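Below is one such record:
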Amino acid sequence: MKYNPFYIKAIHKINTVKLKAFVLGLGEMEKDNIKYDNCILTKVINQKIADSPESAGVLLQIDYVHKQYHENAEKIIELKDKDPEKAIKLINALKDNSSYILEQIAKF
Protein backbone atom coordinates (compact mmCIF):
# COMPACT_ATOMS: atom_id res chain seq x y z
CA MET A 1 0.00 0.00 0.00
CA LYS A 2 1.42 3.34 -0.98
CA TYR A 3 0.79 6.25 1.34
CA ASN A 4 1.75 9.85 1.63
CA PRO A 5 2.56 10.95 5.19
CA PHE A 6 1.74 14.56 4.29
CA TYR A 7 -1.74 13.54 3.13
CA ILE A 8 -2.35 11.49 6.28
CA LYS A 9 -1.16 14.36 8.47
CA ALA A 10 -3.38 16.80 6.59
CA ILE A 11 -6.43 14.55 7.05
CA HIS A 12 -5.79 14.33 10.79
CA LYS A 13 -5.37 18.11 11.03
CA ILE A 14 -8.54 18.70 9.02
CA ASN A 15 -10.50 16.37 11.31
CA THR A 16 -9.14 18.19 14.36
CA VAL A 17 -10.22 21.55 12.90
CA LYS A 18 -13.66 20.14 12.04
CA LEU A 19 -14.04 18.86 15.61
CA LYS A 20 -13.12 22.26 17.03
CA ALA A 21 -15.60 23.96 14.70
CA PHE A 22 -18.23 21.41 15.73
CA VAL A 23 -17.67 22.13 19.43
CA LEU A 24 -17.91 25.87 18.76
CA GLY A 25 -21.19 25.33 16.89
CA LEU A 26 -19.72 26.24 13.52
CA GLY A 27 -20.16 22.95 11.72
CA GLU A 28 -21.48 19.43 11.73
CA MET A 29 -19.61 16.23 12.47
CA GLU A 30 -20.63 12.61 12.29
CA LYS A 31 -19.01 9.88 14.36
CA ASP A 32 -18.61 7.70 11.28
CA ASN A 33 -16.22 10.27 9.78
CA ILE A 34 -13.78 9.90 12.66
CA LYS A 35 -14.03 6.21 13.44
CA TYR A 36 -10.79 4.32 13.89
CA ASP A 37 -11.77 1.69 11.31
CA ASN A 38 -12.43 4.37 8.65
CA CYS A 39 -9.05 6.08 9.07
CA ILE A 40 -6.39 5.74 6.37
CA LEU A 41 -3.69 5.69 9.05
CA THR A 42 -5.23 2.51 10.52
CA LYS A 43 -4.80 0.86 7.12
CA VAL A 44 -1.21 2.08 6.83
CA ILE A 45 -0.29 0.78 10.29
CA ASN A 46 -1.87 -2.61 9.59
CA GLN A 47 -0.04 -2.83 6.26
CA LYS A 48 3.26 -1.91 7.87
CA ILE A 49 2.76 -4.62 10.52
CA ALA A 50 2.13 -7.17 7.77
CA ASP A 51 5.17 -5.98 5.76
CA SER A 52 7.52 -5.70 8.72
CA PRO A 53 6.71 -8.21 11.50
CA GLU A 54 10.03 -7.45 13.21
CA SER A 55 8.74 -3.92 13.87
CA ALA A 56 5.34 -5.08 15.13
CA GLY A 57 6.05 -4.05 18.74
CA VAL A 58 6.72 -0.44 17.84
CA LEU A 59 3.84 -0.35 15.38
CA LEU A 60 1.44 -1.79 17.94
CA GLN A 61 2.43 1.01 20.35
CA ILE A 62 1.75 3.57 17.62
CA ASP A 63 -1.55 1.86 16.89
CA TYR A 64 -2.49 2.02 20.59
CA VAL A 65 -1.94 5.80 20.68
CA HIS A 66 -3.79 6.11 17.38
CA LYS A 67 -6.77 4.21 18.76
CA GLN A 68 -6.80 6.58 21.78
CA TYR A 69 -6.85 9.50 19.36
CA HIS A 70 -10.04 8.21 17.77
CA GLU A 71 -11.64 7.35 21.12
CA ASN A 72 -11.02 10.92 22.28
CA ALA A 73 -12.40 12.28 19.03
CA GLU A 74 -15.62 10.35 19.60
CA LYS A 75 -15.76 11.64 23.20
CA ILE A 76 -15.50 15.19 21.89
CA ILE A 77 -18.68 14.72 19.88
CA GLU A 78 -20.45 13.45 22.99
CA LEU A 79 -19.11 16.30 25.17
CA LYS A 80 -20.09 19.11 22.81
CA ASP A 81 -23.28 20.03 24.66
CA LYS A 82 -22.40 18.59 28.08
CA ASP A 83 -18.94 20.06 28.69
CA PRO A 84 -17.52 22.16 25.82
CA GLU A 85 -14.44 23.19 27.85
CA LYS A 86 -13.44 19.56 28.36
CA ALA A 87 -14.06 18.96 24.66
CA ILE A 88 -11.63 21.77 23.76
CA LYS A 89 -8.99 20.27 26.10
CA LEU A 90 -9.39 16.91 24.38
CA ILE A 91 -8.96 18.61 20.99
CA ASN A 92 -5.60 20.00 22.14
CA ALA A 93 -4.58 16.50 23.25
CA LEU A 94 -5.54 15.19 19.81
CA LYS A 95 -3.03 17.51 18.18
CA ASP A 96 -0.23 16.09 20.33
CA ASN A 97 -1.30 12.48 19.71
CA SER A 98 -1.52 13.05 15.98
CA SER A 99 1.94 14.64 15.80
CA TYR A 100 3.51 11.79 17.77
CA ILE A 101 1.82 9.12 15.66
CA LEU A 102 2.81 10.68 12.37
CA GLU A 103 6.41 11.27 13.43
CA GLN A 104 6.72 7.62 14.42
CA ILE A 105 5.06 6.21 11.33
CA ALA A 106 7.28 8.35 9.09
CA LYS A 107 10.32 6.50 10.46
CA PHE A 108 9.21 3.31 8.74
Notes: The two ends are 13 Å apart (CA to CA). The chain is about 75% helix and 0% strand. The chain has a mean pLDDT of 82. The CA atoms of residues 5 and 35 lie 19 Å apart.
